[in-house]
Amino acid sequence: MKILHLIDSGGLYGAEKMLLSLVQEQKHRGLEPMILSAGEPGISEKPLETEAIAKGLPVTPWRMKPGFNLQEAWKILKWAQENKYQLLHSHGFKFNVLLGMYPEWVRRIPMISTIHGYVHAPRFSKLWVYECLDRLAIRKMQGVVLVADAMKKEFRCNFPSERLEIIPNGLNISELEKAASVALDEPFRSFINSHNPIMLGIGRLSREKGFDRLIRAFADLKQRYPDAGLIIVGEGTLRSEFEALIDQLKIRSDVLMPGYCDTVPSLLNCSTLLVMPSLTEGLPITLLEAMSLKTPVVASAVGEIPKVLGNGDGGVVLSDVEPQTIAAAIDRCITHTHQSNEKAEWACSRVKGKHSSEAMCVHYLQFYNRILEV
Fold it and tell me: How large is the average pLDDT for residues 44-68?
C-alpha cells in the first residue's frame, strides 16, 4: 500500500513525532509511506525533514508560497496521481483545506485526516477562517481520525460515524529511551547545573499552550525555591510577549527559552517535572514521552490528558489553569517526592501497555483497509 502523508510542520512537536513513529512502523511492515513536507520557499530543511532523514524515512520536501495556494495544491495532487499513491493522509488543516476541498472524483485518491487538536482561533481572524474551511473540507474526506475520545465533543462536523475513528498516539519507546541517554550540550548543561528544581514546558509558543500562566506560576514559586529554573522549549508567534512578561517579573536569569531543539528526551530525563497548562489538547506526544521516561507530570484537565493519567494516578491533573493553582500543584509535586515517583511508575506502565507505536500502526492499517474497501 502506498500512502502519502501530507504536513506543513512548524517544528518537531507532537503531530510530527507521531507521524515519524507511524511512518517508521509502516515501513517496517512492508508498506510504502512517503512524507510530503511543505514549507515556504527559501527554507532549506525543516526539523521534521532532518529527523526523517536521520531515521532513514522517506521524505519529499515541497516548497510553496503560503496561504490558499490552490495552484501548488493541484501540482501536488497530480504528482500523487502520477506516483500511484493509493491514499492521502493529511496531518493538519493546511492540506485538509488545499486537497480536501476537491471532490473525490477529481482527486481520484481517497483521503483521510488525523486531527491532532484544536486551536480555537479568535472569531473572524485569518486562522478562524482556515478553521471554518477545514470543517467544510473534512466533510468531503473518506475518513477522519481523532487522537483522543475526548475530542468528539469538539468535532462539530456532520460526518458519518462509520468513517470516524479514534486512534491514540503511540511511541517508539525503545528509541525514546535511547535518545534520553544522550548528554546535553550548552546552554542546557550550565542552566541545569545551576538550578534546582527544574520545571519544563514543551510546545509551540502559542496561546493555547498556557505558557504565560506557567511563567506567572514559576515567578510565585521562586519565593519558596530561589534556585528553581524554568525551561520552555518551542517557538512561535508569542515569543516576544512571553519574554516581556519574564522581564516584567524579573526572572530573566532563571528562565531559558532556547526555541526549537531536538534534545527533548534528554531534557525530560534531567528535569524535575513536566508542566502542561494547556487550554486545549488532544493526546500530547510530549505527555506520553514524559510518562514513558518516568518524569513527574502536572497537566491541565483537557482532551485525553485526565484519562491517560488515570485521573491522577499517573500525575497531577489541574482543577484549573490559574497561575496560583499551577504553582500549588508544582509545589506539592516537589514536596511529596515519594508520591510523585509512585505516580511516575504508574504512568510508565500505562504508556508501555497502551500507547506503543506498534499498536497505533496496526489500528491505522485496519482503518486504511476499511476506507479503501468502501
Answer: 94
